[in-house]
Structure to design on (235 residues):
């Protein structure tokens, strides 16, 4: 399972370490940069899914980093800015420069985690909308065969009896191997309706779908969970 990588760029090492502990406990992989230039070096070398960025840093401040990231990346990396400045104009400057969210120091660590998860869900949904649509008639994943035309799923020739909704979820994930879909993205793609934060419909269907697949696949876990983000099937 591929781990979500988050970059923390802050010259206050104590704050960076504190945030890192909370994020690591949530299952994320954390990288730390001490200044803006170091942050850009990390972004160039690593696959970063989200950036937590202090405004005031040596070498290059947070606003300059945001401008550089937005200029380099066609699909924007979510950026959460941190600042000791609470004035409205500072927040407006950060957001209009290209940040996705803004928190004032000192902050509640649990709120920061909640905002990180929200930004990741939104990013995955938008990326799913951007990706070219794939619509193969038949998908083969090891011994599993998915036929869109016949609307069937088989394992070594044995039928796996799925509901129409379970089939649609499986087909969505299998036709985009390696791509993580949030519960929101799955719900809106399958049910064609607006997702509500408290809605656990997707989780219930994923659970039933997993049980059926794992029973036929000898316990192999085909559908992977990226904790706090969504679901995927690895290539």
């Amino acid at each position: 399972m591929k781990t979500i990588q988050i970059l923390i760029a802050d010259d206050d090492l104590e704050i960076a370490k504190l945030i890192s502990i909370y994020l690591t406990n949530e299952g994320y992989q954390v990288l730390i940069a001490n200044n803006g230039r170091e942050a850009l070096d990390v972004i160039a070398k690593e696959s970063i899914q989200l950036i937590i960025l202090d405004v005031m840093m040596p070498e290059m401040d947070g606003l300059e980093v945001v401008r550089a990231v937005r200029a380099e990346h066609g699909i924007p990396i979510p950026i959460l800015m941190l600042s000791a400045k609470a004035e409205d104009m500072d927040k407006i400057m950060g957001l209009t420069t290209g940040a996705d969210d803004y928190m004032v120091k000192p902050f509640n660590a649990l709120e920061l985690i909640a905002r990180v998860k929200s930004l990741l869900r939104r990013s995955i949904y938008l990326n799913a909308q951007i990706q070219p649509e794939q619509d193969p008639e038949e998908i083969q994943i090891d011994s599993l065969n998915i036929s869109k035309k016949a609307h069937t799923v088989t394992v070594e020739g044995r039928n796996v009896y799925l509901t129409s909704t379970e089939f649609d979820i499986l087909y969505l994930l299998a036709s985009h191997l390696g791509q993580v879909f949030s519960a929101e993205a799955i719900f809106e793609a399958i049910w064609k309706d607006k997702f509500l934060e408290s809605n656990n419909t997707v989780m219930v269907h994923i659970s039933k779908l997993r049980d059926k697949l794992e029973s036929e696949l000898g316990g192999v876990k085909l559908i992977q969970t990226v904790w706090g983000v969504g679901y995927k099937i690895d290539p």
